[in-house]
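thought: fold this chain, then report.
action: predict
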Amino acid sequence: MAVTGVIRVLILIFSVSLMGVTASWAQQSDDGQPAAQAAPSGPGIAWQQLSPEQQKILEDVRKNWNRLPPRRQIALANGAQRFIRMNSQERDQANQRFSDWRKLNEGERANIAERYRMFRALPPGEKARLRRAARRFDRMNLQQRERMRERFQQLTPDQRARLREQIQERPRKKPN
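observation:
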């Protein structure tokens, strides 16, 4: 996958991780729980305990709500609450990202989920480094992105592997 593709996947992973509010997301395996969640064996949330706004957002999972693991119920309720607090532009962006997610096939979703699990397992400094790289990529114009993509695609597999190793071995700047 080209560097731009990897960065786009990381951005998509981050975006999707913020969503967590619709039925197909609820059917995916759990990627972890926020610190505020109950223990996996703890009680879940009854549908009636959700606010009317949360119920509206989570309507697609209503019929399966009682079959969801407690962690999933809590994660979905928290995600719906985050969605409620978003402004209209943030909601539009979140809906677009989720629409893009739903268009992916199962293999692509599994790949993204695995990369997300790997990202979550990284130390905080490494996560921050990747986020900075994604922001730098986002600031590039289309021509800069295309040049980066072309340069990467012209490399042989061995050159790509060496480049990845060099990036891994590069001393990290400490955040200010």
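thought: worth noting. The chain is about 65% helix and 0% strand.
final: tokens above.
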